[in-house]
Amino acid sequence: MFKKEITQKIIRVTRYWLEQVIIGLNLCPFAKAPYLENKVRVVVTDAANARTLADVFMAEIKYLDAHPNKETTLLVVPAIQNVNDFHAVYMNCELILLQKKLTEVYQIVSFHPLARVSGHPPDSPLNLVMMAPYPIIHILRTESVEKLGSKIRQDIQLVNSNRLANMTKEEFTSIWQNILQAEC
Questions:
Q1: pTM greater than 0.85
Q2: What angle do the packed helices 83-99 and 50-66 form, to 10 degrees?
Q3: How many domains, the chain?
């Protein structure tokens, strides 16, 4: 278990990233309303492998089932820094949703500090769509995503690609350094 101060800092930095990158750059047009309505839950776990994370992941699914006022959970997993190990853990969570027949209810997205869009260098602004200050498994309610998606009449990936393609590497570096150095 992380010390309370460490957990609080991880939550503050994660929220800062959400505010500055995901909402601030409008990379996810679905994010702002639930965040402002306090419907986004941020949970930090010290799980360091697929087995222990599976337990925490299912506990979060049960929490969301029991708390319909919470729209989504950002499950922060700082102990799994290796991007390949994290990807394997993420895929295990996908498998859990499939096995428990929960894909109609929940979907997940991953973020990682070292995530890269295929074919782009590490300093490409396009990587911001996949990067976060810590490894994160984002649990979303499928119904909410579909409902909000039906209201948005644009290809979000295309809009993000165009927006980020216009960002300079210097702007990207500045944004990312601000996130990593945030003390909040």
A1: yes
A2: 50
A3: 1
